């Protein structure tokens, strides 16, 4: 089921995580802002939850790719 992750190069996951995962960069990365809201218990609006999912998914996919690379070695 996850063979599509194996076929894509690691560099693609890194680029996506660093761009979409961190954008917008100023005044602070969006994912960091959403994680701080979550830690403070203020992540209640649906748009904020969607933002966390959108900006967090590239990092999750990168971790999955790295984990699957470790299994194959």
Please characterize this protein's 3D structure.
With 73 residues, the protein is an all-alpha fold. The protein has one domain (9-72). Helices cover 73% and strands 0% of the residues. The chain is built from 4 helices and no strands. The radius of gyration is 14 Å and the shape is elongated. The relative contact order is 0.19.
> What is the general shape?
elongated
Give a count of the beta strands, DSSP E runs of length 2 or more: 0
How far is the N terminus from the C terminus?
19 Å
By DSSP (H or I, 4+ residues per run), the number of helices equals 4
- What is the residue-mean pLDDT, rounded to a whole number? 87
Counting helices, strands and paired strands, the structural category is mainly alpha
* N to C succession of SSEs: HHHH
- Biggest β-sheet description: none
Low-confidence stretches: none
Query: Could you estimate the helical fraction of the residues in percent?
Result: over 70%
Strand content: under 5%
Radius of gyration: 14 Å
Any idea how many domains? 1
Features:
73 residues; mainly alpha; 4 helices
Detail the topology: elements first, then pairings:
Elements: H1 3-7, H2 10-19, H3 30-40, H4 46-72
Helix pairs in contact: 2-4, 3-4
Describe the structure in brief:
The chain is mainly alpha-helical. It has 4 helices and no strands. Helix 3 crosses helix 4.
């Amino acid at each position: 089921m996850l063979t599509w992750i194996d076929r894509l190069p690691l560099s693609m996951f890194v680029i996506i995580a660093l761009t979409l995962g961190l954008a917008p960069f100023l005044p602070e990365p969006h994912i960091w802002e959403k994680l701080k809201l979550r830690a403070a218990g203020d992540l209640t609006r649906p748009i904020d939850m969607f933002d966390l999912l959108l900006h967090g998914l590239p990092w999750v996919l990168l971790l999955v790719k790295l984990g699957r690379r470790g299994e194959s070695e």
